[in-house]
Amino acid sequence: MDGIFFYWVSWIVWICVVFFIPNTVAYRFDFLFHLLATMVLVGFTLEISSFTVHISGIYLFLILCVYMRKLSFMKTLDVVIGSIIVALAYASFQLFSLLDPIWLIIKAPYLLCMLLNYLILMLFKDWKRRMSVLLLGMILGDIVYSSLLHFHSLNHEALSYEWHDHAVMVLSTNALWRVLELLSGYLFSLSQTRFLSKEGKENYTQ
Question: Is the pTM of this model over 0.85?
Fold first, then answer.
């Protein structure tokens, strides 16, 4: 059932942040509020003519734009270009999977997850910008995809429950990659410390 994965992961994250993240952490309350608002608004839709879009996606887009207004011009330009690239990749993948699904060797959501995360890793090093650009690009990409289907008289809700499931899957994978980056960096620094301490003891004994 579409939306179950989104609600499941969102509630887990919300509970973990409430009970395990201290109040002194910056943007903790903002994150909790926006996550809860997204879970509430996902059930509401906005109809423009015969084009239907879920309000939660529009809300996320506006919130991301508000938070990124403090970026410099060059960083904002990077975000805009990256979001357009991700949006085109998302829309192209969805069109190919619709028109020629036989080439999909595994399920489309998993391939989409791998494609977008590989693309964002090539574009950005900062994990916060990766997450923001991924979300912005997927919002714009689904609107483009839905608009193309609407142009050809095919009904498709933009930013639907299914889209929320895909977005959570992509963002969770990117967050997992960030954890692996931190873990590998910690293990490397730990091994370097042990190597230097061992080398120092050998030099001392000599």
Answer: yes
